[in-house]
Design a protein that fits this description.
The complex is a heterodimer of chains A (842) and B (122).
Chain A lengths: L2 H5 L11 H8 L14 H30 L9 H36 L7 H20 L27 H29 L12 H33 L12 H35 L6 H14 L15 H31 L6 H24 L1 H7 L3 H30 L6 H27 L16 H28 L20 E2 L2 E2 L10 H4 L3 H6 L13 E6 L6 E7 L5 H17 L3 H20 L9 E3 L5 E3 L8 H30 L13 H27 L7 H26 L8 H33 L8 H31 L1
Helix pairs in contact in A: 3-4, 3-5, 3-15, 4-5, 4-6, 4-7, 4-8, 5-6, 5-18, 6-7, 6-18, 6-20, 7-8, 7-9, 7-20, 8-10, 8-13, 9-10, 10-11, 11-13, 11-14, 13-14, 14-15, 18-19, 20-23, 20-24, 21-22, 21-24, 22-23, 23-24
Chain B lengths: L4 H9 L2 H7 L1 H22 L5 H29 L12 H26 L5
Helix pairs in contact in B: 2-5, 3-4, 3-5, 4-5
Classes of the chains: A mainly alpha (842), B mainly alpha (122).
The structure holds protoporphyrin IX containing FE (HEM) and copper (II) ion (CU).
Chain lengths: 842, 122
């Protein structure tokens, strides 16, 4: 291959008349009321970030009230109960409704443009995740107005949150609301992983991918593995509160510490989940601000992956004072310090980047410098609290409040504001005001340090956290007053930024590359992203090829129009980014929004124990989801299309290479993580209370286990046969396929029902002890795979009847099949655990 | 085509397993971590404090051995690569594999070393 070969452009210009217009038409955003049906990433992404910022303001107002209360000693502005609600809501909203969604939103908004895709692979799923979050979050926040808020602190430790100590519905609100929002976060994470791995521009190998994309990939991976732990925890606590299944009640073989394990198994990675994408933003902004490439890209990627992984080994450091053996604490302390190394590596790489180029002090650069300063300090105090003896001193004092805000505000809010200033011109018709931006930065920076630096001292002087007031004799009045003043200065800075955003941010043909940046999101773009999809050979393609923007806009690269007449994007291979097929994408629709509203209503109504209404809402959600799937996978007009330069790609793909196969596999990873958390809980409670585990003789009803296992295996084989018949497609014997599918679905369901019946008929009741409760939970978890397999299975049969499911277009069936086999595997494991384990240990 | 024949051919075969193999190092780290932590809790529950240091020692040696193999293998592989037409000088995935395995090794030593300094069960 010669150089000239590589430089040749796939298409010639000028492009045929009408090509651009057709592209614009197919990607146009619905107007007026129907704008709510939009699914484009640039619209949904902006709504998403705006909503996250609204929650930030809401939780900030709560903080302002708390700070007003704490400004002077013996204050009576709010009562202790209201203070607890404020504090719990502030922590919860900041962590669950602001920080995680904000970075997820940034991913939805930025990734397609940055990777050279037209949109994320499942636009309706992003729309669903957004609406679920916006509706669910708003209802959750409104609970404060009715005084129904949870008051157990943001990590909701039982027994304080068990029904005996929190009998109101506040805690249920938290559990169902947060559980639900985590599910939407997982939906977004699946979208992001498939998007990053499969929709990069041709030639953008994994080693040339922008660092932000790496961080979002790791972010999403961590969400997939960490969030199931909290979903399980909320599920168990809710089961305990609603039905008395004793997971956390110690006299029936439960243990409140189980909650802490599950919560922090999620909660610690959560900090990195928030921080890594923020670091990714910094790694994008600094090269532009210094006009020189990021130093040590390779090492940064390694550091990011290492941080993501090692952060899973840290959860117990939040439990140093709970009386675990020293050695267990030692492990976690060691791991906590080890994780600070990769963070340090990154900071050095950033400093080297600054040293290498010439830093231009625009607003984004200021926020990045503020971040570096604050975050480094937060890291230092973090190493301090990672040392077990020091933590015994500082635990539950304002030192921890200071540390936590240094890490969170330094590590996430400052980078996010840098990102807002930096990327606004890539999506909005106008950039933000530089002068106002600088004023805002200084207010935020000074206000923040004033408010929180002194809290380290307040903490060392002994002020405990989570108190609604303090006596003037304690001498904490002055530092608290300073903190309050600082907090209000910080708030003034935030208000300026929001004011400018409202004034300037308008979706439309964006202002463009004002920073002379080098990555793809700065190509001229519209709803369809870049006009044509370039071939990537460098980390900063816009720097290495100054004509790139022009060529892309002239349509001289791949896919300059719409090849199939639908919305579409190029799917490439995950490592080398070699084009594999053209994926047809969905049009705007009401279905995601209605489905999201239905799901939100389902969870909220359950909180109020309105089961009938909840089921009705759930049914609406399911119907909307079926409607949403119904017009996916239209019959492509051509089996193959030319995307330019003679490159012909298929318009459809099934099996392990298809994006839907990837999405379901990732979903199953999350299900596996959920199941592993369950197995952990099972073994954990067993070590705590081996006494409630039955002896082998008591679980002698094992014949049920054998029967269930047999049914599961039969079902599994039946489904494999169904898959096979679909492949060979007997046109003459069309009934075989549906019969096999229905038979297998029935065998699976009957097996599950028998499993539960077996326990019940042996006299086991879930409320008697933790063993019994865990046994029924196993079936419940399996049911959570069986139910969707049933729904999608029936849906596939409907498609089959309509003639929309055949040997090629078979995604609906493949999805069912994967879920189905996972349910089978889980069922078999359950038999081993529930019947086998007691035999082994006694 | 545009990507060089070698890349084209690899693109045909690259799958999710490429990622799993890159994550081999951290997965070993994870397994070691859970094994050490889990086995320690179980041994302590049943009053077998004396076995704890041994268990940790064996687990750590095994984990380190496998990580070391990953590093050596990865370095050898990425040395053998031919320069590619797009100028990327090494196989990024091979590099990631051994660099991350190396980092995992450090962390394994770190976690394992705590056994040497702290009492087992109290
Ligand atoms: C203007 C900025 C902020 C101010 C003035 C502020 C103030 C406060 C105050 C007064 C508390 C209660 C401390 C106590 O009574 O123990 C608190 C707790 C907390 N804050 Fe903030 N905060 C701010 C921003 C944030 C942000 C951006 C986050 C997260 C992204 C955050 C996360 C938390 C968490 C997790 C807690 C602990 C709640 C609990 O103890 O359950 N805060 N904050
Ligand atoms: Cu932590």
């Amino acid at each position: 291959m010669t150089n000239t070969d590589l430089l040749k452009l796939p298409n010639s210009a000028p492009r045929p008349a009408g090509e651009l217009e057709a592209l614009e038409r197919i990607w146009s955003t619905p107007t007026g009321f129907r704008r709510l049906t939009a699914i484009n990433n640039n619209i949904i992404g902006v709504y998403y970030i705006a909503t996250a910022l609204a929650f930030f303001v809401f939780a900030g107002v709560l903080a302002a009230i708390m700070r007003a209360q704490l400004a002077v000693p013996d204050n009576t502005l709010v009562s202790p109960d209201v203070y607890n609600q404020l504090m719990t809501m502030h922590g919860t909203v900041m962590m669950f409704l602001f920080a995680v969604p904000a970075v997820e939103a940034a991913g939805v908004l930025l990734l397609p443009q940055m990777l050279g895709a037209r949109d994320l692979p499942f636009p309706r799923l992003s729309a669903y995740a957004f609406w679920a979050y916006a509706i669910g979050g708003t209802i959750f926040c409104s609970s404060l107005l009715f005084g129904l808020s949870p008051a157990g602190g943001w990590f909701m430790y039982p027994p304080l949150t068990s029904s005996s100590f929190s009998s109101g519905i506040g805690a249920d609100f938290w559990l169902l609301g947060i559980g639900f929002i985590e599910i939407s976060a997982i939906a977004g994470a699946i979208e992001i992983i498939v998007g990053v791995l499969r929709t990069r521009a041709p030639g953008m190998t994994i080693g040339k991918m922008p660092v932000f994309a790496w961080t979002m990939l790791i972010f999403a991976g961590m969400v997939i593995f960490a969030f199931p732990a909290i979903i399980l925890a909320t599920l168990l606590l809710e089961l305990e509160r609603a039905f008395g299944w004793p997971f956390f009640i110690s006299d029936r073989g439960g243990d409140p510490l189980l909650w802490q394990h599950l919560f922090w198994f999620f909660g610690h990675p959560e900090v990195y989940v928030i921080f890594l994408p923020a670091a990714g933003m910094v790694s994008m902004i600094l090269p532009s601000m210094t006009q020189s490439p990021l130093v040590a890209y390779n090492i940064i990627v390694v550091a990011l992956i290492a941080t993501g992984f090692f952060s899973f080994g840290l959860w117990v450091h939040h439990m140093f004072t709970t009386g675990l053996p020293n050695l267990s604490l030692g492990f976690f302390s060691a791991a906590s310090m080890a994780v600070s190394l990769p963070s340090g590596v990154q900071v050095f790489a950033w400093i080297a980047t600054i040293a290498n180029g010439k830093l231009r002090f625009h607003t984004p650069a200021l926020f990045v410098l503020g971040f570096l300063f604050i975050f480094t300090l937060g890291g230092l105090t973090g190493v301090m609290v990672a040392m077990v003896p020091f933590d015994w001193q500082a635990h539950d004092t304002y030192f921890v409040v200071a540390h936590l805000h240094y890490v969170l505000i330094g590590g996430m809010v400052f980078p996010l504001f840098a990102a807002i200033y930096y990327w606004t011109p890539a999506f909005s018709r106008k950039a933000l005001d530089e002068r106002l931006g600088k004023i805002a930065f200084w207010l935020m920076f000074i206000g923040f340090n004033l408010a929180f630096f002194i809290m380290h001292l307040t903490g060392l002087w002994g002020m405990p956290r989570r108190v609604y007031t303090y006596k003037s004799e304690m001498g904490w009045g002055l530092p608290n007053l300073v903190s309050t003043i600082g907090a209000y200065i910080f708030a003034a800075g935030v208000a300026i930024v929001l004011f400018d955003l409202i004034r300037k941010f308008r979706i439309g043909y964006p202002r463009g590359n004002v920073w002379s940046a080098g990555t793809l999101e700065w190509l001229p773009n519209g709803n369809y992203s870049a006009r044509s999809v370039p071939i990537i050979r460098h980390h900063n393609p816009l720097w290495s090829d100054p004509a790139l923007s022009r060529h892309v806009e002239e349509g001289r690269y791949y896919l300059p129009g719409t090849a199939t007449g639908y919305r579409e994007t190029i799917v490439t291979s995950p490592v080398e980014a070699v084009p594999q097929y053209v994926m047809i994408m969905p049009q705007p629709s009401w279905a995601p929004m209605i489905a999201a509203a239905g799901t939100a209503a389902f969870f909220i109504l359950l909180t109020f124990k309105l089961v009938g209404l909840a089921l009705f809402a759930g049914a609406i959600a399911v119907i909307a989801m079926i409607r949403w799937g119904w017009d996916l996978e239209p019959k492509p007009p051509f089996a193959e299309v030319d995307i330019g330069g003679g490159l012909r790609l298929p318009t459809y793909m099934s099996g392990p290479r298809s994006h839907s196969w990837w999405a379901v596999s990732i979903l199953l990873l999350a299900a596996a993580a959920l199941y592993l958390s369950y197995v952990f809980s099972y073994l954990y409670l067993w070590t705590v209370a081996p006494g409630v585990w039955p002896s082998a003789a008591d679980v002698s009803y094992g014949s049920f286990a054998a029967l269930c296992a047999a049914l599961f295996i039969v079902a599994s084989v039946g489904m494999l046969l169904a898959s096979h018949t679909l492949r060979i497609a007997h046109r003459s014997r069309q009934w075989i396929f549906p019969v096999l599918v229905i038979g297998s679905l029935a065998a699976l369901s009957v097996g599950l029902v028998l499993e539960v019946y077996g326990h019940w008929s042996a006299g086991l009741r879930p409320t008697i002890n933790s063993f019994a409760a865990l046994t029924y939970t196993a079936s419940l978890l399996q049911g959570m795979l069986v139910a969707p397999a049933l729904v999608i299975g029936v849906y596939s049969l409907a498609r089959y009847a309509r003639g929309d499911l055949d040997s090629n277009r078979r995604a609906a069936f493949d999805v069912t099949h994967l879920l189905f086999q996972a349910a089978v595997v889980e069922g078999l494991f359950n038999q081993l655990l529930v019947y086998g384990f007691p035999h082994v240990v006694r | 085509m545009w990507f060089g024949n070698e890349a084209m051919m690899k693109g045909e075969t690259d799958t999710i397993f490429d990622f799993v193999s890159v994550l081999a190092g951290p997965l070993i780290w994870f397994a070691h971590f859970f094994l050490v932590y889990g086995a320690q809790s179980v041994l302590c529950t049943f009053d077998r404090a004396a076995a704890v240091p041994w268990m940790i020692f064996v687990a750590t040696v095994l984990a380190l051995g496998s990580v070391a193999w990953l590093v050596i293998d990865g370095v050898r592989r990425s040395d053998r690569l031919i320069p590619r037409p797009d100028g990327e000088h090494q196989d990024f995935m091979a590099y990631l594999k051994y660099a991350i395995a190396f980092a995992s090794g450090i962390s394994i030593v770190w976690v394992g070393a705590t056994a040497a300094v702290l009492p087992s069960c109290n």
